[in-house]
Amino acid sequence: RYPLHVSASGRVSVSFGDDGWRVEVRNVDNSEQIQKALEQWYRRQAVEYYEERMFVCFERFPNWFQDKYRVPNITIRKMRRCWGSCARNGGVTLNLSLIKMPVQCVDYVITHELCHVEAFHHGKAFYHLLASVMPTWREREALIEQLGIHTV
Fold first, then answer.
1. What is the 3-state secondary structure (H, E, C) of 103-152?
2. Fewer CB within a 10 Å sphere, N or C end of the chain?
3. What is the DSSP string of 57-115?
4. Please, are residues 108 and 144 in contact by the beta-carbon 8 Å criterion?
5. Angle between the 124-133 and 103-118 helix axes, to the nearest 10 degrees?
6. What is the pLDDT of residue 148?
7. Residue 38: which H helix or E strand, with range?
8. Is the C-alpha dihedral spanning 147, 125, 79, 16 positive or negative?
9. DSSP code of residue 10
10. pTM value > 0.85
């Protein structure tokens, strides 16, 4: 949706602004270099952004949840089939491509995974907690599907 301006440079850099993407790589004919530079940029942005959104989402949970659990560690991975996952130890993995989604979708995925910390399944208790913390979860889930932004 945004123009991509690629130029040669001895140093790799990526920036995004009103005029689109600006990518500097050593070899402008090497699409792998360009892709790698963009992926690294997204990853740097995702680390800070996901952490910020995790704290916002965690604060929405009831006091009993916040007293029982801590804000989970986040791992960022390229995932082919899902937007996020929660490990039994409470760690949350988020898809790198999730950063391309609107904030309401990011918050839905994070909230969904936080609910798994308490209910490690998709049963009634899980959906009860999800609905209590995020009553609009169905609309947000539908928006992810509607946007059609594919996982990596």
1. HHHHHHHHHHHHHHHHCCCCCHHHHHHHHHHCCCHHHHHHHHHHHCCCCC
2. N
3. HHHTS-HHHHHH--PPPEEEE--SS-SEEE-TTS-EEEEGGGGGS-HHHHHHHHHHHHH
4. yes
5. 140
6. 72
7. helix 31-59
8. positive
9. S
10. yes
* Tokens standing for residue 6: 């690629």
Total length of the chain = 152
Q: Quote the crossing angle between the two packed helices 137-147 and 103-118, to the nearest 10°.
A: 130
Write the burial class of residue 114 (CB in 10 Å: 0-12 exposed, 13-18 middle, 19+ buried): buried
Question: If you search the block for the tokens 């947000």, which residue do you land on?
Answer: 140
* Pick from 6, 128, 17: nearest CA to 62: 128
Is residue 71 within 8 Å of 90, Cβ to Cβ?
no
